[in-house]
Amino acid sequence: MSDIRFTEKPLSDWMRNTAADSEIVISSRVRVARNVQSFPFPMLATEEQSREVRRNLIDVLGFEEVHKFGEFHVLNLNELDQFDKEVLVEKHLISPDLANESRNGAVILSEDESISIMVNEEDHLRIQCLFPGFQVQEAWKRASAIDDVFEAHIDYSFDDRRGYLTSCPTNVGTGLRASVMMHLPALVMTKQISRVLTAVSQVGLAVRGIYGEGSEATGNLFQISNQITLGQSEAEIIENLYSVVLQIIGHERNARERLMRDSKQRIMDRVMRSYGILSHAVIMDSKEAAQRLSDVRLGIDLGLIEEPSIVQMNELNVMTQPGFLQKKFGEEVLDPNARDIYRAQMIRDVLKH
């Protein structure tokens, strides 16, 4: 049986730490995609081939050089129920694609969940490193170091001209996806967000919602990531993302300062109204919860309120998601109305402490 304690707590340990610019950049993530030479991509592999790939990749954990990254735990996806998988998606530890497919998938997690290595997802191997705040360069260094360990023991699919070969052509080359999760409420309130995000898309970066491609940007949370993996080095990709995110941070800070200078009472009213509703509501859907949690987070960052803490805000972002609510409250599958009731209860309980 896989170790399910990772799905029983809402917040990964790495998210309890603070870092530079964390009032705007929630987290930084780097992911590298790799495939094992002489094996078909996961979508084309037989049951026996995908099992062998999983076994070979997990065997790498036995080598001594892995130990410098700490202790790892292997969760086989076919040993988890659907709600455990949903919680792992909500914590950004696996992708929706891995959760929904059955091809001998697994995830290798570090103790603090800052390292998540997906096996037999769209590619055989996807190494993901997560850091709090704006630490995309640090996340890349760690992902690269882990990648070096695997490459020392696994023959990767690699072409001298094209680089690393991946299941999706958009990842060919470096196989690198770097992203930051940003909280940009002031740019939304001042109606500057469209202009800023349009400019971002013109320099080779993508803007997505909280769960990546195809997801909606709720709660004023936006994921900014590179689109180009071929024709640029890893250093160029990271530097481009870093410089653009620095500019967005500056725009958001300026917008917050303008709001505090010109509309402080209105912002205070908005924050306190959201805090009051969160503290007393009996029914709360996910979209409203995300928006009101965003308002309260902004109030904390601006020094308008002292409680709750940012850690509690981070916890509630996960605890209010459908998978976590189902796992905590549901002996049977919860319908949307029941989830909305439990979501409101969960928020009230957290804000009381």
From TrEMBL:
<dbReference type="InterPro" id="IPR022415">
    <property type="entry name" value="ATP-guanido_PTrfase_AS"/>
</dbReference>
<protein>
    <recommendedName>
        <fullName>Protein-arginine kinase</fullName>
        <ecNumber>2.7.14.1</ecNumber>
    </recommendedName>
</protein>
<keyword id="KW-0067">ATP-binding</keyword>
<dbReference type="GO" id="GO:1990424">
    <property type="term" value="F:protein arginine kinase activity"/>
</dbReference>
<dbReference type="InterPro" id="IPR014746">
    <property type="entry name" value="Gln_synth/guanido_kin_cat_dom"/>
</dbReference>
<dbReference type="InterPro" id="IPR023660">
    <property type="entry name" value="Arg_Kinase"/>
</dbReference>
<dbReference type="GO" id="GO:0046314">
    <property type="term" value="P:phosphocreatine biosynthetic process"/>
</dbReference>
<dbReference type="GO" id="GO:0004111">
    <property type="term" value="F:creatine kinase activity"/>
</dbReference>
<dbReference type="InterPro" id="IPR022414">
    <property type="entry name" value="ATP-guanido_PTrfase_cat"/>
</dbReference>
<keyword id="KW-0547">Nucleotide-binding</keyword>
<feature type="binding site">
    <location>
        <position position="92"/>
    </location>
    <ligand>
        <name>ATP</name>
    </ligand>
</feature>
<feature type="binding site">
    <location>
        <begin position="208"/>
        <end position="213"/>
    </location>
    <ligand>
        <name>ATP</name>
    </ligand>
</feature>
<feature type="binding site">
    <location>
        <position position="126"/>
    </location>
    <ligand>
        <name>ATP</name>
    </ligand>
</feature>
<dbReference type="GO" id="GO:0005524">
    <property type="term" value="F:ATP binding"/>
</dbReference>
<keyword id="KW-0021">Allosteric enzyme</keyword>
<dbReference type="InterPro" id="IPR000749">
    <property type="entry name" value="ATP-guanido_PTrfase"/>
</dbReference>
<feature type="binding site">
    <location>
        <begin position="177"/>
        <end position="181"/>
    </location>
    <ligand>
        <name>ATP</name>
    </ligand>
</feature>
<comment type="similarity">
    <text>Belongs to the ATP:guanido phosphotransferase family.</text>
</comment>
<comment type="function">
    <text>Catalyzes the specific phosphorylation of arginine residues in proteins.</text>
</comment>
<feature type="short sequence motif" description="RDXXRA motif of the pArg binding pocket involved in allosteric regulation">
    <location>
        <begin position="339"/>
        <end position="344"/>
    </location>
</feature>
<keyword id="KW-0418">Kinase</keyword>
<dbReference type="GO" id="GO:0005615">
    <property type="term" value="C:extracellular space"/>
</dbReference>
<feature type="binding site">
    <location>
        <begin position="27"/>
        <end position="31"/>
    </location>
    <ligand>
        <name>ATP</name>
    </ligand>
</feature>
<keyword id="KW-0808">Transferase</keyword>
<dbReference type="Pfam" id="PF00217">
    <property type="entry name" value="ATP-gua_Ptrans"/>
</dbReference>
<feature type="domain" description="Phosphagen kinase C-terminal">
    <location>
        <begin position="24"/>
        <end position="255"/>
    </location>
</feature>
